[in-house]
Amino acid sequence: MAALAALRDEGLVTSRHGSGTRVAVDARRRLPRTDPSLALRRNVVAEAFVDPNAGAIDLLGASVEALPSIGPALFAEAMADLGPHLSHSGYHPFGLPELREVVAAHLAHRGAPTRPSEVLITNGAQQGLALAASLLLRPGDTVLVETPTYLTAIDLLRGTGARLAPVATGPEGVDLDALREAIERHAPAMVYLVPTFHNPLGTVMPASTRRAVAALASRHGFTVVEDEALAELSFTDDPVPPPIAAFAEPGTVLTLGSTSKVLWGGLRVGWVRGSDELVRRLGRLKTVADLGSAVPSQVVAVRLLRDLPRYQRERRALLIASRDAVVAELAEHLPSFDFAMPAGGLSLWLRLPCGNASELAQVARRHGVAIVPGHLAGPDGGHGNRVRLPITRLPGELGEGVRRLARAWEAYQPTAERRRTALEVLV
Ligand SMILES: Cc1ncc(COP(=O)(O)O)c(C=O)c1O
Predict the structure, then answer these.
(1) Is 45 within the bounds of a domain?
(2) Which ligand 1 atom sits closest to the C-alpha of 62?
């Protein structure tokens, strides 16, 4: 009654004795207009793109520089391939046919036989996810996401008006029992997973779990969106299981991929693999969104993807060097921070011995280093004692970043320990 009275006072509803209460005709105009971009300020990685924070070492984004062998000479050479395209409008909403072919061949090599018509070229995996979300989700739908997960996926998915429900994930990928329970409880429209070199865990979902996830999608009628943006980033020669799509009925899985991590994010070339029908629908959405990706980037991507194994080896060597450098710095300066060695990918998922990573992040800022506190990677506010540390910076910069973080920890540790003692007394 009190709430209705307050709404009446604001003129948002009108009540007439005997005929109930109705939303006022002009209520929409009276609602305060919020700026949806403000909600994105929680995402410190995206925020640093918008407002780079000078002076601090940025240990935020898990992004890489172009491989040293991808230099101006390679771009100049690739531009010769542009010739035949210049007599066409250049609008290819599904992507250049020759790029769709090399991506299809790459996916077949990964164990998911693919025709070029089942590939849509996108501006990075990020656009693939945005298109998938706008195709599959309506406001109020539920999407299941792992916790932790890729933090910018959380913001993108929330932006569709969908509700996000967390599912536990660990060294063996998504927890199947938790997934089954969440499916029963929420009847999701979509399940978003990062099966290969998970961001931030660096883990790989085994083939048996992929098969089980694919079977659940068929049985329950949701679509799996598997984000394979990091799938080319193995640290070892161990075989990587095929994408979930390889185990699934056509039309139940969309597979996202990217050149960003193995080659260079600046290309902005990624892809979505799906059934012909889903790719056609996504292509319609992409046409309206941007009329197609840039042709020069796609021409370069064709060349690079034809030689992918060579570039994968080059990226692996660089990532292993950074990882080893950061692991050595951590052992020396932050030995109480614990982590599991990842099988691949771009980050370490550090566990603090005590305290809260959000608070540590604030202290770290004052010591000239920006870090991602773990709770940002969960849709549920968990992971408060975790930090996602990228291993993508040059070893020297990473080392200085870790040393600054160690100084911040030294300053923050007494507060963290006082809290722990207070909690122990309470318990
Ligand atoms: C899991 C995951 N998906 C997608 C992206 C976005 O990649 P892209 O540059 O291909 O849009 C990232 C980047 O960090 C990522 O880690």
Answers:
(1) no
(2) 14
Based on the fold, state whether residues 365 and 245 are members of the same structural domain. Answer: no
**265 Cβ below 6 A of ligand 1:** yes
What's the token pair of residue 414? Answer: 């007494």
Instruction: Return the ligand 1 atom nearest residue 123 CA.
Output: 11
Cβ(122) to ligand 1 under 6 A? no
Q: Which tens digits make up the pLDDT trace of 298-330?
A: 999 999 999 999 999 999 999 999 999 999 999
Residue among 125, 137, 131, 249 at smallest CA distance from 197 = 125
* Per-residue pLDDT, 148: 98
DSSP calls for 96-156: -HHHHHHHHHHHHHTT----GGGEEEESHHHHHHHHHHHHH--TT-EEEEEES--HHHHHH
How many distinct structural domains can be found in the chain? 2
Residue 314's domain comprises: 57-67+310-426
- pLDDT number for residue 26: 74
Q: Indicate if ligand 1 lies below 6 Å from the C-beta of 322.
A: no
Query: Whole-prediction pTM value?
Result: 0.91
Answer yes or no: is the C-beta of 60 below 6 A from any ligand 1 atom: no
